[in-house]
Design brief:
It is a single chain. The protein contains 2 helices and 17 strands. The chain has 282 residues and is mainly beta. It has one domain: Porin. The strands form 4 sheets. It has an 11-stranded antiparallel β-sheet with strand order 1-2-3-4-9-10-11-14-15-16-17, covered by helices on one side. Strands 5-6 form a two-stranded antiparallel sheet. The longest helix is centred in the first third of the chain and has 7 residues. It is globular.
């Protein structure tokens, strides 16, 4: 999940590590640093972030029609960037279908942060053309009680998702040993109505909950986080192996947040969205 992945991983970040995979299992581990460009965006940074990510996954059962995946991942930020305001961090994330640049889900600005960690299991099951997968994670935020006279509480956040896909046309999703994850549906023949070829098509659904409310005044007096729940469904069409066309409907429920910069989402919001997207990969 993006929120956890971006704590100490993600793209455009310094990292050193490695991974090894076999037919039935994969292990990986990386030591990471700050994101590239952090010091350009904030010239007051005097000490950079360091962290680590690890992952282990396996396939305890495999047959022609059934494929089972189990795994676990963990990430730790040993220290966050320190700038003129100390060691601060704000956790936030958008919906699976982003609604502009504003993220309604937020923890609020967390000050006096000593360390952050996250860990959780993952499980997936493929049965013929049907794929069901899910993941849970817990995030822990430790405070540095020696840095401030007012001792802010340590925090615990939770999140999970359950997603399902069913391939209507094309080759169903298969397991990639190199990434320990299921790939996109395969396109047997490129889209060509004249010859009766329509590419690959799947129907998808997803339910996710992320709770960034740990306790009252978690970011200081009057600063609270909130919770986001999203129900989403749609179709993914692959006219060829380079193009993906998505049509999604999402219903979202986001509780209110307090003390957030810009006064975003003071009263909570819920709504519906219909979004179409086109992606190209070469």
């Amino acid at each position: 999940m993006d929120l956890v992945r971006n704590l100490a991983g993600g793209v455009a970040r310094f990292s050193v590590g490695g991974e090894h995979y076999e037919k039935r299992w994969l292990v990986s581990g990386y030591f990471t640093g700050q994101k590239f460009g952090d010091r350009s965006k904030d010239t007051t940074i005097v000490d950079s972030q360091t962290g680590a990510v690890i992952r282990a996954a396996g396939r305890p059962y495999v047959s022609k029609d059934i494929d089972v995946h189990v795994g676990a991942g963990a990430t730790s930020v040993f220290k966050v960037n320190e700038n003129s305001s100390g060691r601060q961090l704000k956790l936030s994330d958008n919906m699976e279908v982003p609604l502009g640049e504003t993220s309604l889900l937020t923890s609020g600005a967390l000050t006096d942060v000593a360390q952050i960690w996250a860990a959780g299991p993952q499980l997936a099951l493929r049965w013929k053309r049907f794929l069901l997968k899910g993941e849970y994670y817990h995030i822990g935020v430790q405070r540095d009680h020696q840095a401030q006279t007012v001792h802010l509480p340590s925090l615990g956040f939770d999140g999970w998702y359950v997603a399902a896909n069913y391939t209507l046309l094309g080759t169903p999703r298969v397991y990639s040993e190199k990434t320990a994850a299921f790939t996109t549906p395969g396109v047997t023949y490129d889209f060509d109505p004249a010859t009766g070829h329509w590419g690959a098509l799947e129907v998808s659904g997803r339910w996710s909950v992320t709770d960034l409310y740990g306790t009252e005044n978690q970011g200081g007096e009057g600063v609270n986080g909130n919770q986001q729940t999203v129900w989403q469904g749609g179709f993914n069409w692959y006219p060829n192996r380079h193009i993906k066309v998505m049509l999604d409907y999402a219903h979202f429920i986001v509780t209110r947040s307090k003390g957030v910069s810009g006064g975003v989402n003071l009263f909570g919001r819920d709504g519906n969205a219909v979004v179409g997207r086109v992606q190209a990969a070469f």
